[in-house]
Each structure stands twice: as structure tokens, then as C-alpha cells.
Design brief:
Strand order of the largest sheet: 4-3-19
Radius of gyration: 20 Å
Shape: globular
Number of strands: 19
Helix content: 25-40%
Length: about 400
């Protein structure tokens, strides 16, 4: 298995020559989180520190597919997932996904984790949980679905780790998979903030959201209407992209304006939160549409153009359209579209992890002088996430800067 990993990955000799001694030295050495490039600002020791999407990656959480099951077709789920799978959700809710998909996804995640470790990156994993358990709160009843995508739930800004409130009822207890890790980071000095947990009562949703087909979805998106209301704050962390002192967010089916405003007020004057919008009929998570890969450098989805693109260009940012995905139409993608191909993970400004068969995306990065580390990941795509989705970067080596 180990030789197979090396045969499909393009990595430099420097990465392969890192030793276990270096790995464990990094694991047990306290890290310094610089919150400003100014010499007058004192650094704080924290195991958690990340300011953007591209500084050198030192520690990351990689999710698990184990325990995942098919979610119920509630209105907030129906507004996000492809129409072709609605019948599957209605008829097989609470059942596991096909073994050949889940098992192979876990194999690919293990291989991905080993590759990151070979590059000297500390890899942590959440606890597996049984998502088939039913639960009831005073406001709703549901069962779980998955806790596989750390990026959806956890976000690191500086030396603070955030737990997102989420918006799908079937993801209400997702924090249980990550709580042991978060407590560990807290005990070692990290700031830990859990955003207000929503009631998820019927008032949070437009229970009459008129979505019966793709045409409805496109029409409603253009009108700025979503399945979630403004009854209380809700957001998924994956609807935010970090660029130092500037945080970019989108209003989506799972992130409302109250959720964005909660984060804005919590962060205070040191950060600016910019709201972007896109031509996206089922907006859910920004990282398959707008991917910041370096200072003032964005990979953009050509079929979901950003309506605020001129603002970015005036700031001197470079916007590069992603190459067309090559995933076959017949490949099962239960939650998303082929554009997971642009959902990549930057190891630093000059190296990126990409799906090994997505040739056009690889060319997009190579034209920018960025080395592609090619990893098989299509089975993981089937379960709803690319490399960015399946990870949360806990620590990147860098300082807090302004790029906008």
C-alpha cells in the first residue's frame, strides 16, 4: 500500500526526506501564533493558529466517512442537493451509503492522510459517531447524517477555533465528533468559541419553500430567496474564506445574514467581513465557487460568476477561471456537482493537493507556477467533499496581514 501511495503522488525529495523525529518534535513543541506583523505586538503560544488559506500548513484535521448515512429530505437539505438523488433520500433516509462508496472513500482518506504526514504535516482525525441514532429536541426530531467534513463545522481565525451553529437538523449534533480534539486544543492554550446553537424550529426555515425542480431553484436564487430565514443566526464554516484581516462570506442555503453578522461583531474591528454573491442556484459553501489560493489570487468557478468581481479587481486581485471538471457524468455525486474539482487544499503558496484525474484543474494551477500533488479522491467526492471540505487547517505558519 505504501508503494502505491508514492506512485500516484507528485512530491519533492525534500518532503520524502522528513523524519519521524521532525514529525514528533513538531507535535510536542508549543507553537507561536503571531496575530500581527507589527513588532510591538506580543505573540501568544497556542496550538491553533491560521490566518489564511495558503500559508505553510503544519497541522490539519482530516475527516472520516465511517458512520455516515443518508440524510432525511428536509426542506433545508432538498434546497442544496442534486434533484436526481431526491428519491434516494426519501426512500433510504437513515441507511448507510453503498459500501463500495463509503469504504473506498475511507481508503482514499487514509491515503491522503499519509501523504500529508509525509510532507511533515501533523494529521488529526475526529471520532467516528453513529449517525443512524434518532434524537428529539423540544423543537424537532431527526437523525444524524455525517460528521465527515471538518471544514463545514470548524473554522480557525488566528488563535481561535470556532464551532459553527450549522443549519441542517441532521447535523445538529455534529460537534460530538470533534469535541475531544477541540477540548485538547483549548487545554493547550487555544481560544474556543461555539457560535450560538440554533433552535432549528420551523421558524428557521421557509417550510413552504417552493422548490420542486431545478427551474424553481434557479428562479429563487436570482430573487435572493433561500430555504433558511433570518429567525436566528446560522452558518456553516465552509461559507467563509480567510485572507488575513479580510474574511469573505456568502449568504447561502445554510448561512444567513444573521450568522454572518454574528461573526462580524464577534471578530470586531481587527477584521472586515465582505459578503459576496454568485450566480448559484443552490448556494451551499463558497469553496467550490470562490477559492482564495494566495495573496490577492483567486480560482473562480466560470459558471458561477461573482457579482462583486469588480470590487476585487479594483483592489488589485487576480481572478483566474478554473478549468472544466473531467469527472464523468455517470459518477455518483450525492451532494454536490463536478465542481468539487476546484475544491483543493493549499499546502503553501507553491503546492496544492488536487484530484489525480482532474487534468484541467491541474493545468490551471500549473500555469500559475503551482506544483500539483495529485491524489485519488473521487470516492470522497461522492460523499460531498473535496480536499478543502474534508479538512480544517489547525495551524499554518504565518502572521496576520492585510491583502485587500
Amino acid at each position: 500500500m505504501f508503494s502505491k501511495v508514492c506512485s500516484v503522488v507528485t512530491i519533492g525529495q525534500k518532503g520524502l526526506q522528513r523524519t519521524n523525529l521532525q514529525y514528533f518534535k513538531k507535535l510536542f513543541t508549543p507553537q507561536i501564533c503571531y496575530t500581527s506583523s507589527s513588532a510591538s505586538v506580543s505573540p501568544s503560544t497556542s496550538p491553533v493558529c491560521s490566518h489564511n488559506e495558503w500559508d505553510p500548513l503544519e497541522e490539519v484535521i482530516v475527516g472520516r466517512a465511517a458512520g455516515m448515512c443518508i440524510p432525511p429530505l428536509d426542506i433545508e437539505v432538498k434546497a442544496c442537493v442534486p434533484e436526481k438523488w431526491w428519491t434516494l433520500y426519501e426512500q433510504h433516509s437513515r441507511k448507510p451509503f453503498p459500501d463500495e462508496v463509503a469504504e473506498k472513500a475511507d481508503e482514499q482518506l487514509e491515503e491522503f492522510s499519509r501523504i500529508l504526514q509525509h510532507e511533515g504535516i501533523i494529521v488529526r482525525r475526529p471520532d467516528p459517531i453513529d449517525c443512524t441514532q434518532m434524537y428529539t429536541t423540544p423543537d424537532f426530531s431527526s437523525h444524524g447524517s455525517f460528521s465527515v467534513m471538518p471544514r463545514d463545522f470548524l473554522m480557525v481565525i488566528g488563535n481561535e477555533i470556532f464551532e459553527s451553529p450549522m443549519a441542517w437538523r441532521c447535523r445538529f449534533f455534529e460537534y460530538r465528533a470533534y469535541r475531544p480534539l477541540v477540548k485538547e486544543y483549548f487545554r493547550k492554550g487555544a481560544k474556543w468559541t461555539a457560535a450560538p446553537k440554533p433552535l432549528m424550529s420551523d421558524e428557521l426555515y421557509d417550510m413552504n419553500y417552493p422548490i420542486t425542480n431545478l427551474e424553481d431553484r434557479n428562479r429563487l436564487a436570482k430573487q435572493g430567496k433561500f430555504a433558511t430565514t433570518e429567525f436566528e443566526p446560522c452558518f456553516d464554516a465552509a461559507d467563509f474564506m480567510r485572507a488575513g484581516r479580510d474574511i469573505f462570506a456568502q449568504r447561502s442555503q445554510v448561512t444567513n445574514e444573521m450568522g454572518i453578522e454574528w461573526l462580524r461583531r464577534h471578530l470586531g474591528d481587527e477584521y472586515k467581513v465582505h459578503v459576496l454573491s454568485f450566480n448559484d442556484p443552490n448556494a451551499m459553501h463558497i469553496d467550490g465557487t470562490f477559492n482564495i489560493i494566495g495573496p490577492g489570487l483567486v480560482i473562480s468557478n466560470p459558471i458561477r460568476p461573482c457579482n462583486e468581481i469588480e470590487m476585487l479587481k479594483k483592489a488589485g486581485w487576480k481572478i483566474v477561471e478554473a478549468g472544466q471538471p473531467t469527472t464523468p457524468d455517470s459518477w455518483p455525486l450525492y451532494f454536490t456537482s463536478k465542481w468539487l474539482a476546484m475544491n483543493t487544499l493549499m499546502l503553501d503558496e507553491k503546492r496544492v493537493v488536487v484530484e489525480k484525474d482532474e487534468i484541467n484543474i491541474q493545468k490551471t494551477f500549473e500555469k500559475l507556477g503551482i506544483e500539483c500533488i495529485k491524489v485519488p479522491f473521487l470516492h470522497a467526492h461522492s460523499l460531498g467533499g473535496g480536499f478543502h471540505c474534508w479538512t480544517t487547517d489547525i495551524r499554518r505558519r504565518g502572521t496576520l496581514e492585510s491583502y485587500f
